[in-house]
Amino acid sequence: MIKGKPFQCLAFLGIMMVSGATISPSITTAKSRIDKAKVIEVISKEFNDNYVFPETAKKMESALKKNMEDGRYNTIDDPQVFAQKLKEDLIEVSKDKHINVFYMEKEPNRPEQGPEALAKEVASMEATNYDFKKLEILNGNIGYIDLRGFQPAEFGGATAIAAMNYMANTRALIFDLRNNGGGSPSMIQLLTSYLLKEPTHLNSFYVRKTDSYEQFWTPAHVEGKRYLDKEVYVLTSGGTFSAAEEFTYNLKNLKRATIVGETTGGGAHPVDLHYFKDIKFGAMIPYGRAINPITKTNWEGTGIEPDVKVSAEQALSTAHGMALQNLIKKTKDADDKKRLTWSLESLKAVHSPLTLNPETLKSYVGSYGERAIALDKDQLIYSRGSRKNRLIPIDTDRFAVEGVDYFRLQFNRDGKGNLVSVSGLYDDGKVDKSERSK
């Protein structure tokens, strides 16, 4: 049996990954004879001995045996197909998405031990920057962290600390976990410590075999500035899973973040890998469960409902817009309000552009001194010198300029409604005007 740490596994989609071990199911080209009753007996016993909920394990065993008696497995000859069917039936009873069953001709390799193996593992984590995919300062000084996994803080801690200190002076912070399948609780503890003032009990893990609990708290010390009294947003999708869900669940119940996106995958159980040489089948068996100190439960099987439910594709623009709107409401500085409103209008122009009819678009075409407006396939194109940019309507006569955040165009009309000039608007309040020449 190969053991994993709590939430150390990512989602199992064809390839299973546990504590650094990669396990690819063998490919069988011919149908194999399977002793299905024995497979069910062996796997059921292992679940009864180890699964986190003993009563549920008994129900799963009963379901598999009933399916066998009812002939539901009679037409299955391929062992991989049988393994997949057993997995589906176990999950149908338990609603536990960490469960997996697989067929392999050879026993999975145990994770390598020793300094060389550790060096390889660390090099692999370094190669992906410890899953910190992207750091960005969005318009309005909104921080954005695209985090694809939670690597152990023992190795990725310096990168996490650098990321949080880079974001220290932003006015709100967005964690993007839409493509995050899980990882280590230690990274959750480290990142969350920057968002809370005092050491906080985040989560506990119960392990059935030892009937024991392990608590996870944020550390008392952080390197650099804490990120306090500022809005935090977490972006989720159906692929947000395991440790990524714990981070989300913790912050939601601590009322420290607004969750934006889709309901998460629903995996809250740490797992062990079990392999049985005599039948050449194996299983991923959840051996413990997360217990949140506030809710006294977890998100297994249900996922985490976002505070603001939108598609994964819309989550970032939605959270960015919410952050800007909240800052606009809070600020008492008129110039600051103008800058934030400018950023919000630019965001809306890109993600929710106004649609203008073809005749209206044609009316803007012309020359305005050094500036020119052309129409290309229902898109207005602004040019000045050699530079050309697409115009994005904010309202009928005001346009954002794609790729130029600090600049806009305002078309001006005379008393009869005719377009007579265009003004360049700058985010610092500067305005320059060009008369229409044709």
Write a structural description.
With 438 residues, this protein is α+β, with helices and mostly antiparallel strands. It contains ten helices and 23 strands. The strands form five sheets. The protein has an eight-stranded antiparallel β-sheet. Strands 5-6-7-10-11-15 form a six-stranded mixed β-sheet, with helices on both faces. Strands 1-12-13-4 form a four-stranded antiparallel β-sheet. Helix 1 runs antiparallel to helix 2 (54-69), helix 2 packs across helix 3 and helix 5 (153-166) runs parallel beside helix 6 (185-193). The N and C termini lie far apart (79 Å).
Query: Uncertain runs with pLDDT below 50, 5 residues or more?
Result: 1-5, 8-30
Question: Could you state the CATH homologous superfamily of the largest domain?
Answer: 2-enoyl-CoA Hydratase, Chain A, domain 1
Distance between the termini: 79 Å
**How many distinct domains?**
3
> Which radius of gyration do the C-alpha atoms yield?
28 Å
Question: What is the percent of helical residues?
Answer: 25-40%
Count of DSSP H/I helices = 10
Q: What percentage of the residues does DSSP assign to strands (E)?
A: 25-35%
Overall shape: it is: elongated
Q: What's the pLDDT, averaged over the residues? A: 90
Largest sheet, described in full?
Answer: 8 strands, antiparallel
Enter the CATH topology name of the largest domain. Answer: 2-enoyl-CoA Hydratase, Chain A, domain 1
Spatial strand arrangement across the major sheet: 16-17-18-19-20-21-22-23
Question: Number of DSSP strands?
Answer: 23
Q: In CATH, what is the class of the largest domain?
A: Alpha Beta
Class from secondary-structure proportions: alpha+beta
CATH architectural grouping of the largest domain: Alpha-Beta Complex
